[in-house]
Amino acid sequence: MNPLHDINYHAFVGALAKPGQDIIDSLTPEKAHLWHMSGELRGELLELQIALENNDAENVLEEAGDMLFYIQGCFQFPGCSFFMPSHNFEAQVIERLDHDEGYLDIVERYPHSTLLREVEAATTMAKRIVLYEKPSDDKTDFSPALWRAVAHLGNTLRQHGHTLADAFAHNREKLGERLPDGVYSNKAMQDRADKKEGE
Question: Is the pTM for the entire model greater than 0.85?
């Protein structure tokens, strides 16, 4: 008989969850960065969905910009076989997807693809790399899913009167105000200088 059948659920979860120390021991700076970026990307997608439900075009722009930030961060992972250098991401998105609404070609080419499905696919593959220690190869390459996600993001922005270039610019302005020294700071992220009191 399986011994797990005879223990309470608290012990059941404790026995089967990967130990936190094992996770720490297996992390590299690159994996930690990917875990951070992909985890935040899921959260920003939820915030975008709320903005869409509220038909809030301003917040749609803000959350789309946040998503682009974390997608760029995912593409910085060394195991990502993206078809362009990571440092060209913004320029290539604007040139290939924003120009002449090129994102519509991708959206129409993959009729069963959605923003939610692509982000879910990409972040699940990132989780397998970080937590399950799967090798970075063709089976865990999340870059095609993220590129399609950016295309869907462009289409979503278009429907609310914005472009991907607008989202990049908004994100630069917001984070430039929040992090005026140009580097990450816990205090600056806690203070959120770009937000009004109560936001």
Answer: yes
